[in-house]
Structures are given as structure tokens and as C-alpha cells.
Amino acid sequence: MNFDWNHAKAFIVTAELGSLTSAAVKLSSTQPTIGRQVQAFEDELGVVLFERTGNKLLLTETGQVIYEILRPMMGVAMEASLAAHGNVHTMTGRVVIAASQIDALYRLPEILKKVSELEPGLRVDVEVSNQVSDLLAHEADIAIRSFRPEQNELIARKIKTIPVWLYASSTYAEHLNLADDQGGGSAAMRKARVLGFKDNTQVISILNQSGWQLTEENITTSCDFQPLQIELAIRGMGCVFLPQDIGDNHTQLVRVFEPLGPPVEIPMWLVCHRELNRSAKVRRVYDLLIEALLEEGSRAQK
């Protein structure tokens, strides 16, 4: 059976994202166009691929089977694009870096300034999200991550391991009365307000395994936008988890519960697609990132 690959691609991306609008954004198209392409694909195959539940599109049983068949084809198409892209040996063009909110806000500005000065012909775009970008699908060329990727097609270099501490405003730190806490901070921890995330289960579990005594009652405000957490902490609304190099540079914040040690340590990995390692422009940005992040780590240890 013949079908239009553009229709199939619209179907695959819609299936992955669950909405025509999201698929349109990812494919740089419009919602009506993606809708027409998905409908055309259903007509070409003679089957119903989605069940429409409110604003959400759910795969039918047949749709799931077809998605599982076509998804590898999408990967092959991306690999072909990567191979062609990777063979470009030039210092002009676009390189995309995927980074978390914290990395983008506090680590990348100086690095991007240096890249701009050294390689003015390059355009560097930054995808800012705490979600993991799919390098295999070419959502980004390089990613700064807090874990080592499992895919063999990706190369990764560990840059450093970063202690994460709780920080608070001086006023709130005094309110906790840590100096008079004979338990090294454990009593204050039970009453401390902590700025949390959308899902705090794993954070609480990890900390409590290390001797902390956090419960959901300690979480007074939650959001996944870390710059807001920092601003709330500065205003005395609780304690915020921050990497040491970033928290220590915030003059309006101080470490709290130091006797308990850093609640957690997180690795920093720089990740790139193996094929893109042949691209001069991506290699150049990759090398500049490594150089700057290693230098930053050395300064933080002094």
C-alpha cells in the first residue's frame, strides 16, 4: 500500500505528543495542516488511528500497531538526515544546545558569549526545558544532562559531580534557629519550609535515606520553574535546592543544614550524537562547552 511519508510523519509525531497542536509546533507547521495530514493518512490506510477524548488524541489498537511499525522508519529517516548533516565541515550554520532552566540561566550566558566572539558565523539556539531532549530525533545537537545516556548512538563525557545544598535567605535561616539546634539541624528540618517540585516523592525518598526527615508537610510551594523557586527563597518563603556553584554565587542566599552534608550530588554530562561528532561546527561548540564547564568546575573547587 502506498502512502505519503509526510502524512505518516504527522501521524507519528501526533501519536507521540498526543495533540495536533503540539505536533504542529514540533514540525514547524500549523494545527489545521497536521490535522489534514493525519486524516489523509487514515484515509490512505482505510483505518481509524485515533480516538478523540476531549483535547487529547489516543491511539486506537490499530493505531498503536501501525505506530510501532513506523517509528523505526522515522528513526532511519533521522539517521539519514544526521549523516548528511554531520558531513558539513564549516563554521557557519546552526547548532542547538538543550539545557535545563538552571544551566541555561546561570551557566550558558558566558559560554554563548565566548562562542559568539570566537565563531561569529555560528548561530547557537538553546532549547530550555527540564525535560530530556531526544538527540536521536535531532531535537538538539548537544545536551547538558544530569545522567549518562543509555543509547549506544550517543556519546557522552562526564564533566563533574556537583553537590546540591539547601539555600535560604539570611532572614529565614535565622528563623530556623540552626545555631541553637543541638541535633545538628534535625529539629529545624522538621519545621523547615522547602520549595519543591511538581513531584516530590523521589526527592523526599532520596533525602530521607541519607538521614533527613522531610515529609510532604515540609513542601509549602511547588513548581518546576526553578528561577521562581530562587526568587521565593530570596523573599524568605523557604529553602531551595541548588547546585553548589550556583547557590554559593547568590549573595542573597546562604547554605542551611550544612552539618548534614549536601542532600544529594548530581553528575553533569555533555551528550552529543555520534554522527554529529563529524560536524566541525558541532565539534567546535562541544569543545568550547567542555572547556568552559571544566574551568567553571575548577573555580568552584577553589
UniProtKB/TrEMBL annotation:
MF-aspect GO terms: DNA-binding transcription factor activity; sequence-specific DNA binding
Coiled-coil regions in this chain? Answer: none
Phosphoprotein listed as a keyword: no
Q: Which InterPro entries does the entry link to? A: LysR-type_TF_proteobact-type, LysR_HTH_N, LysR_subst-bd, WH-like_DNA-bd_sf, WH_DNA-bd_sf
- Could you tell me which Pfam families the record lists for this protein? HTH_1 (PF00126), LysR_substrate (PF03466)
Keywords attached to this entry: DNA-binding, Transcription, Transcription regulation
Q: Name one GO biological process term.
A: DNA-templated transcription
Which residue range or ranges hold the HTH lysR-type domain? Answer: 3-60
Q: By its UniProt entry, which Gene3D superfamilies does this protein fall under? A: 3.40.190.290, Winged helix-like DNA-binding domain superfamily/Winged helix DNA-binding domain
The record's comment on protein family reads: Belongs to the LysR transcriptional regulatory family.
Name under which the protein is recorded: Transcriptional regulator, LysR family
